[in-house]
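This week, look over our next protein:
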Amino acid sequence: MNRHLRILDCAVAALRRSSSRTLVVVVVYSLVVATMASLLLYLQACRRESRVLLADSPDIVVQRVRGGRHELAPTDRADVIRRMRGVVGVTPRVWGYSFDPPTGATLTFWGADSVPGDVLEYADPWPVDGDVENGCLVGSGLAELRFLGIGDRFPIRSFDGTLFAPRVAGVFTSASALLTNDLVVLPTTDLRRVFGIDDNLCTDIAVEVHNSNEIDNVARKILEQWPDARAITRRQVLQTYDALFDWRGGLWAACLMGCVAAFAILVWEKGTGLTEEEVRTIGLLKATGWKSREIMELLLLEGTAVSVTSLVFGLLIAQIHLVLFDGLVFARVIKGWSVLFPSFPIQPGLDFSTLLVCVVLTAVPYAAASLIPSWRAAVTDPDTILRT
């Protein structure tokens, strides 16, 4: 052990003697690791966030499709679904989108007779069984852009061009901004009047299944019952989010090929040979009694020291980029964008798979690149090395 520690001490001393070259290598190496780790950790955080948000979503969402387009569904289908074995809850839902000219944003409108009280910052006693007329709840982002407060009128243009101006009864908390930032909640009867949706129609039907293993069977029964139906399970939604994040991450990876190419050139330069000073140093070490195995270990430890140092600094930079700057470089492409897009803190977690990818793609190639030139120099006669 003492012998290995002395070799490590010699490797560190050699890196200090060429401090300028070592610093350049560490900086470039760290930036490559930081870029790769930031992208991987950001994608991982977005996948984790999507799973948390969709944990309470319906097991199945049933829509009506005509000509490949989503269409309003009859509400009497909910009664048929409710009688299917394994179904414990069926809720016809009314929701939609509407463009808001003052903000230039497309708002989401949702019909509900009640909402959880813990997601509201300020609220009058609404909604209570849908018995309050002309009331609405708005997201914090919309309230900020439109300067809305409790009791203010929020004008909404109905489908027939008439103006509907409910009073703001509550504002959603900023903690729920990821879901409610551009949301407007109205009593279901009022939203039907705004969108012109008859009482016997709904936007879609939310279905809850008692046994999660029976979700696919219930979805198959629904599709067999109505040929124009589309049954979307929670698992399919999660798979869609994963595919979306992978696709957007792939776009960034393609753009970062320049960084990968720069790192490949760095590894190639390391693997093609040693500098004249390094060759003479190896000759002197062999002349003073160092064995070929010890010289290879010395150069391998030099590469490993640079790799480990760069890997640690790169991961640290990646964490700073994600925690302090909310993944500024990748946010717009991976998360998406809109006028009222919510800003939410990224909570990256360094798992074993991400660390393994960074080590395999960066640390291992660089450390291994020092083996070939070190082996060539180690097996060469010291007299030959010193005379060159």
